[in-house]
Amino acid sequence: MATASMEDYLERIYQLIEDKGYARVSDIADTLEVHPSSVTKMVQKLDKSGYVVYEKYRGLILTSKGNKIGKRLVYRHELLEEFLQLIGVDESFIYQDVEGIEHHISWDAIDRIGDLVQYFKDDPARLNALNNYHKEEE
Ligand SMILES: [Mn+2]
């Protein structure tokens, strides 16, 4: 099992590779706002655990296991953002809220939240009803 910190790195590495085609230690350090030496340490740990293959001068790639979990972690983050938006959470809280929640919720809960988001997206009348209820309560 990946720790919360390993999950943050895998999520970011997957995203960098999606966006740019590669993930360099310096890019990971910049986007996670940590020192490059911390990134190197973590990347070595992820290599040992079979999530990435790291070669000092050639960069790093995700193994199929790393790719699979990275994809799920990015999905989880995006789903939770969508969920908080949908229930009307103020935009300014959403990113930090998701960063706080994402490592502490079961995949079962993620699946149920996925269903709930889909339930609202399937029929705009449901979303309107929720928004109206929200306004009445204010
Ligand atoms: Mn995240």
UniProtKB/TrEMBL annotation:
Free-text activity regulation comment from the record: DNA binding is strongly activated by Mn(2+).
PROSITE patterns attached to this UniProt entry: HTH_DTXR
Gene3D superfamilies: Iron dependent repressor, metal binding and dimerisation domain, Winged helix-like DNA-binding domain superfamily/Winged helix DNA-binding domain
Domain of life from the UniProt record: Bacteria
Residues that coordinate or bind Mn(2+) 2: E11, H77, E99, E102
SMART domains per record: HTH_DTXR (SM00529)
Pfam families xref list: Fe_dep_repr_C, Fe_dep_repress
Keywords: Activator, Cytoplasm, DNA-binding, Manganese, Metal-binding, Repressor, Transcription, Transcription regulation
Record function comment: Central regulator of manganese homeostasis.
HAMAP family the record matches: HTH_MntR
Similarity-based family: Belongs to the DtxR/MntR family.
Protein name per its UniProtKB record: HTH-type transcriptional regulator MntR
Species whose genome carries this gene: Geomicrobium sediminis
Gene that specifies this protein: mntR
